[in-house]
Amino acid sequence: MMETPPRLKLDRVSKLFGGVHALTDLSLEVAPRQIVGVIGPNGAGKTTTFNVITGAYRASSGTVTLDGHAVTGEAPYRIARAGIMRTFQNIRLFADMTVWEHLLVAQPHTGSALQRLLPTRLSNPQAIERAREVLEFFELGDVRNRIARSLPYGLQRKVEMARAVTARPKLLLLDEPVAGMNRDEAETIRTLMLKLRDDGLSILLIEHDMAFVMNLCDYLYVLDFGVLIAQGAPNEVRTNPAVLDAYLGQAD
Description:
globular; 10 helices; alpha/beta; about 25% strand; 10 strands; 6-stranded mixed β-sheet
């Protein structure tokens, strides 16, 4: 019986900018229905990792695979269509679109150019049904017709995550999903992420809030200057001397 491949696998991935090693021989995995965190101090290579996975940067060496199929070097839109969606550290919502429109426009569409036009998407029964599902899941019904960028910060974060989920990804990449949130807002996001995982989604996240990470992730990878210095379950990582020296100890 064949072993199920990891949802995501990075195998000895390096990224150089000129002579600077932003990532060096990074290997990591995310299994189906798993929440994995990437942590480390500023400049450790976390966002570079996301950019390589999503095709924004081309890896200098190494491979990236999704469900056993290589996506290394593919264009970002092809990687998104393959099933990898992401959010960003700085919220990126469309200026004049409502929450509802964000949930419609993010969905993948095939067919002719005419069928991919926004007005057609807005009336597509399948797209409407999916948007309703996600709107209910994220409890955004009360702000459905509000301009997304007019909402409070915490709700904008939820809209951005909901937009990514609407596309039915296999893997969701979240770049500091609770940055700037208070504890109640962060707990709402944590609960949503656990529900998404239980529904079958794999999640890879970057986050500086260590209490949030330790109370959420199934597994952690720790980077420092682009090098993997530790990995393991949260309880193992929190007591690792290399981690305490490179990152966690700096927060005390």
